[in-house]
Amino acid sequence: MDIQEIIGAIDDFVWGIPMLVLLLGAHVFLTFRTGFIQRKLGRGIKLSVTKDPNAPGDISQFGALCTALSATIGTGNIVGVGTAIMAGGPGAIFWMWITGVFGIATKYSETFAAVKYRVKDHNGNMLGGAMYAWRRAFQRKDGSIPWWALLGAGAFALLAAIASFGIGAAVQSQAMTSVVTTNIPGVPEWAMGLAIVVLVGLVVLGGVKVISRVCEKLVPFMAIAYTIGCIVILCINWAYVWPALCLILECAFTPKAAFGGALGSGVMIAMQYGCARGLFSNESGLGSAPIVASAASTRNPARQALVSMTGTFWDTVIVCALTGLVLVSTMLGNADLQQQLTAGSITAGAELTSAAFAEIPYIGTPILVVGMILFAYSTILGWSYYGNRCITYLFGHHAIRPYQVLYLVVAFLGAIGVGDLVWSISDITNALMAVPNIIVILLLSGMIARETKHYVYEDHLDEEDTDPIPQVESK
After folding, report:
1. Which of 18, 92, 280, 459 would bridge with 84, disulfide CB 3.0–4.6 Å?
2. For helices 321-332 and 349-358, what crossing angle results, to 10°?
């Protein structure tokens, strides 16, 4: 067994049943602990487009949401849905949706903790995330921090920094290069790699404010354009939309073969793969989005937490659900596609997604290509910020520029096809970073529930948090 196979086996293990139980269990627990905060989704959407100019922070609430969405709305929303269907059958789509619904509470909780315990650096810029929640929440009166809190903080920051190279850089640039070279033959991979480095470098090297400004414009455009494209396809497939929805629900709760027996699985398999891809897609519980949410201008933690939780709704409940309906309805309406599945000529999620969109005349393939490019590019931008903040925590602000350069190098390597090992390793760390993040959220769930009752349910959202934001010493 070579190193790639060993890393792959570890990857399969860490993303297995124990991790799914941890994340999905936290989703359900925090849903009850926060009093079903999902019912305040409308308030969160309203706040996301409301400016809070006099509140402390570096970027707007909407800018923080868009930057987080830029990282979560990625290739997983397109190819990941196809992968879930191939592995778990159409019923997996329902379980993806369920993880999104319950994951809203976890995204709220982790953002609340991150904003509650954020700090300022030597320039007055906001820093936050699970690493600072570990340090500040358990700091003793004499200023010392328990070793286990330091371990939790350091583990999260290190794992997230490593994950950024694969989740953010290598795999996304590889996806962009693949979709371009497949549809435009003759474009060399190295040329795509250079183009990606230039386009990403122009934004990433400018820091969080530049990243936020770009994402504020890019994310709404790409999400709306892709959603409209999917709705057009569903209109074309109108006769198969209701049968597709019925098939998804039936396969979610009963063992059933679909598409002539080509796809089908038991309920547990559908649940496992649907939950896995849903959790991977919206990143609720991984602790990534709260890092940028901590930079938002907000007068109290509850306001930004409400805004951030809408990201899970848009990512999984809307975008992934639309993609799933497009794929299943297209497969129901195309006998040739069903024959390809039965013959075994389609064996991977990416192949299924490409074949399904290609069946839609004129607009199918362009929607897929443009969607993949924009989603992958935005993910590269979002994850560059996450890695930036984690490297700053570990090594100080002097390490930011070397990290940014290395990030661009890895993006280039991913484009030319040598990022597979980096992707596998970072996928492992992406899962493992959820462990210290979930632990600290559960430990702080009492505080989150108590303050949520005050701010949200007792209608004090306009109240300013009086706790001072401390400044950390420069390394």
Report:
1. 92
2. 70
Write the CA distances from 43 to 37, 68, 104, integer angstroms: 10, 19, 13
Residue 234 · residue 325 · CB < 8 Å: yes
Q: How far is CA 122 from the centre of its chain?
A: 30
Distance in angstroms (rounded) separating the CA atoms of residues 89 and 260: 12
Q: How confident is the model at residue 27 (pLDDT cuts 50, 70, 90)?
A: very high
Chain mean pLDDT for the chain: 82
**Which backbone phi and psi does 16 adopt, to 5 degrees?**
-85, -160
The closest alpha carbon to 120, from 475, 474, 472, belongs to 472
Q: What is the DSSP string of 7-44?
A: HHHHHHHHTSHHHHHHHHHHHHHHHHHTT-GGGGHHHH
CB-side exposure of 26: number of CA atoms within 13 Å?
Answer: 30
CA dist., res. 203 & res. 407, Å (int): 13
pLDDT digits (tens, 9 = 90+) for 205-218: 776 677 777 777 77
Amino acid 276 reads A
Hey, CA dihedral for 297, 299, 305, 309, is it positive or negative? negative
* 106, 278 Cβ separation under 8 angstroms: no
* Residue 261: predicted pLDDT: 45
Cα angle 126-132-134, degrees, rounded to a multiple of 5: 165
Query: What's the rounded Cα separation, in Å, for the pair 98 and 79?
Result: 19
> Residues 319, 223: contact at Cβ < 8 Å?
yes
21 vs 275: CA distance, rounded Å: 10
- Model pLDDT for residues 310-344, shown as the tens digit of each residue: 988 888 888 888 888 888 888 887 777 777 766 66
Do 389 and 156 contact (CB within 8 A), yes or no?
Answer: no
In this structure, which amino acid lies at residue 33? R
The span from the CA of 380 to the CA of 375, in Å, is 9
Going through 161-293 in order, the beta strands assigned E by DSSP cover 256-258, 263-265
